[in-house]
Amino acid sequence: IQLTQSPSSLSASVGDRVTITCRASQDISGYLAWYQQKPGRAPKLLIYAASTLQSGVPSRFSGSGSGAHYILTISSLHPEDFATYYCQQLYGYPPITFGSGTKVDI
Amino acid sequence: QEQLVESGGGVVQPGRSLRLSCAASGFTFYSYAMHWVRQAPGKGLDWVAFISYNGGEKEYADSVKGRFTISRDNSKNMLYLQMSALRPDDTAVYSCARVLRDGYNYDYFDTWGQGTLVTVSS
Asked: Across residues A13-17, what is the average pLDDT?
């Protein structure tokens, strides 16, 4: 299963609403997670099961979608949100696949 | 506090072998399935291998199948990745990750190590 993530990068300002899209090559029935990664750091889980917010993650992060189309939304960008975001599908693995990433910078 | 710490990376010549280790602490390691994921310098995340909680099931990415072997020692809270016939395109930071499954059978990687760098070069 291939994941196409877009955009590959975006520039935004603090307070902006940001949306990142992840399209699968087939229906993955919500088996999708989103991760945030900062340089030199391990990925951090944000969302799993397409829309479930991981404990401790700010509510400005949300996930939506179904079938083969999924969206990560940051409702109001904070300074600490500048990072790279990856989607991941876990439908009937192996294999598990990741999107190519979206870099969010100023 | 759940923690995963990888070790064993380094510089290795093409065709040689290397074994990576992942030490788990702060949780009941034997209860969880585990994965290895790698990230080439400046690139995205790439899933490598999976092992079930008791080691009975193992799965690999096509790119490493037949060359890498995942294993675990639950008595020592350790996860391993034995890598052989290494190639320059195996150069990456290798991280171990714990997988959880919620009540609806949705899996996710909730805990990651910082990773260990493997460089394959002559």
From this structure: 96
Query: pLDDT-derived band of residue A86, with 50, 70 and 90 as boundaries?
Result: very high
B40 touches chain A (CB under 8 A): no
Residue owning tokens 């996710």 = B108
The answer to whether A101 contacts B44, with C-beta atoms less than 8 Å apart, is yes
For residues B43 and B37, what is the distance between their CA atoms, to the nearest angstrom? 12
- Summarised one tens digit per residue, pLDDT across range A30-44 is 999 999 999 999 999
Smallest CA-to-CA distance from B70 within B83, B85, B88 is with: B83
pLDDT < 50: residue spans in chain B = none
Token pair, residue A38, equals 């900062």
Q: Which residue has the tokens 């404990």?
A: A55
Which pLDDT score, from 0 to 100, does residue B3 have? 97
pLDDT of residue A72: 98
Residue A89: the pLDDT is 97
How big is the CA angle at B79 (ends B81 and A39), to the nearest 5 degrees? 75
Beta-strand runs (E) in chain B: 3-7, 10-12, 18-25, 34-39, 45-51, 58-60, 68-73, 78-83, 92-101, 107-112, 116-120
B50 interaction partners in chain A (CB closer than 8 Å): 93-94, 96
**CA dist., res. A70 & res. B114, Å (int):** 28
Distance CA A57, CA B19 (A): 34
Phi, psi of B90 (to 5 degrees): -85, -5
